[in-house]
Design goal:
alpha/beta, Rossmann fold, Dihydrodipicolinate Reductase, domain 2, 7-stranded mixed β-sheet, 16 helices, 14 strands, 46% helix, binds NADP nicotinamide-adenine-dinucleotide phosphate
């Protein structure tokens, strides 16, 4: 495929898009990969280019493409010029569908940061077959949701196969430590999901643990996500709900289906936040549970939401400071269990999960599609990180300071 660019970053004027462009500029420069920035405003894109040029003078020649989500023909022209479109234009359910459609039609690969299950379901239903026939790859969820979960399970099951000759039927992801903030764009996407959830059909889809699996596929043993505080006898910790479980668990289950149930037809997966045993851990778990419930309750009525947006919440374009991003981190444990076998994988990330680490994971996912084609799985359609990128992404993530280590502990 001979096209002008390897990667176009669409949404390069937004909070996360700017971080992606900066990472590409600092990490890869302008020789080894051919890339461009895109967005809806030429003026704002030129400002971004000037900021990049203060880091590397060669950025002053960085190509700019202007395309609004409402202009399908401009989007098509953009998709025709590149191997991969990387998009941070969200909420995806509001602005994202036309781009996925033109990428599907033009056989252009695509990555995003979507955490909106109802949008991904629509894209699967509308485009999976077309993309498969064109041997293209549309890969959603290439940020903190859902790469650590999806690639973490991939690494764990690969190690289980090597160690035990079979996958582990139960995996739990424990969020052990994390520090980071949230952007206005992420909150706008969360609010958009809540707005769509006023429709009972969307509400049912969001509650379905197998919402992203093939319609006629196997349904495993999983129920809904954990909503309360529970004691975990295996890890001896209190567990509380994890807000990203609503998307990550669906992505992991879709991966299993697309990998032809390599992790088992009765594979079970859940995600929780882990807090220390003892009273203080229990209190923290309760605080987290009530905090999440209170946020949803306040974001649901429009007037309380407007009040929060006008006063305490960041606006679109805003997010955690550079210092907060650099001081951020995450540590997740994926615990695989069978009746007489156990194996853990620890996923560690430098920088805050949502932006510092996410912008790198997204950029590396796009480069994986553009530059590692001969190592990618022979699989096409609307995919997940594990099913669409798999092995070559793991090496790239290590360069971006996101690592997966199998904990060497003998099986029980
Ligand atoms: N999965 C994860 O781990 C993760 C992490 C971070 C973010 N996200 C998601 O990523 C998305 C972006 O977040 P953010 O904080 O970067 O948001 P943001 O700062 O609000 O950026 C949004 C971008 O979309 C552009 N845009 C808005 N409407 C458009 C339109 N009609 N046509 C073309 N471009 C348009 C904006 O352009 P202007 O600058 O011209 O307004 C801006 O470049 C959100 O959906 C968020 O939920 C996910």
């Amino acid at each position: 495929m001979k096209r002008d660019f390897d990667v176009i970053v669409w949404g390069a004027t937004g909070f996360t898009g700017r971080l992606v462009a900066r990472y590409l500029c600092e990490q890869y420069g302008f020789g080894s990969i051919r890339w461009a920035i895109a967005g809806r405003s030429g003026d704002r894109l030129r400002q971004v280019r000037e900021q990049l040029a203060s880091l590397d003078a060669r950025a002053s020649d960085l190509p700019i493409l202007v395309a609004d989500s409402a202009d399908r023909e401009l989007l098509r022209a953009m998709a025709q010029r590149t191997q991969v479109v990387l998009t941070t234009v969200g909420p995806y359910a509001k602005y994202g569908a036309p781009l996925v459609e033109v990428c599907a039609e033009e056989g252009t690969d695509y990555v995003d940061l979507c955490g909106e299950p109802q949008f991904i379901r629509r894209m699967v239903d509308a485009h999976h077959e077309t993309v498969r026939q064109k041997r293209g790859r549309i890969v959603h969820c290439c940020g903190f949701d859902s790469i650590p979960s999806d690639i973490g399970v991939f690494v764990l099951q690969r190690a289980a196969q090597e160690t035990f000759g079979q996958p582990l039927p139960n995996v739990t992801l424990y969020v052990e430590r994390t520090r980071g903030g949230v952007s206005g764009g992420t909150l706008a996407s969360m609010m958009h999901v809540l707005d769509e959830a006023r429709d009972p059909q969307v509400r049912r889809l969001l509650a379905d643990p197998y919402a992203l699996c093939p319609q006629n596929g196997v349904r495993g043993p999983d129920g809904g996500d954990q909503q309360s505080v529970r004691w975990d006898p295996d890890r001896q910790v209190w567990t509380a709900p994890f807000v990203m479980a609503a998307i990550n668990t669906r992505v992991v289950r879709r991966s299993n289906a697309l990998l032809d149930y390599a992790w088992g037809r009765d594979f079970s997966y859940r995600e929780v936040t882990a807090l220390p045993g003892g009273l203080s851990g229990w209190l923290k778990a309760r605080q987290l549970q009530f905090g999440l419930a209170a946020f949803t309750a306040l974001a649901w009525p429009r007037w309380t939401r407007s009040l929060m947006q006008a006063t305490i919440l960041p606006k679109p374009g805003e997010g955690p400071s550079e210092q907060d991003r650099e001081n951020g981190f995450f540590r997740l444990r994926l615990a695989g269990r069978g009746t007489d076998r156990r194996l853990d994988v620890i996923c560690r990330g430098k920088r805050d999960p949502g932006y510092g680490a996410t912008s790198r994971m997204l950029a590396e996912s796009a480069l994986c599609l553009a530059c590692d084609r001969d190592r990618l799985p022979d699989r096409y359609g609307v995919l997940t990180p594990a099913s669409g990128l798999g092995e070559p992404l793991i090496d790239r993530l290590a360069q971006a300071d996101v690592t997966f280590d199998v904990e060497s502990r003998p099986s029980a």
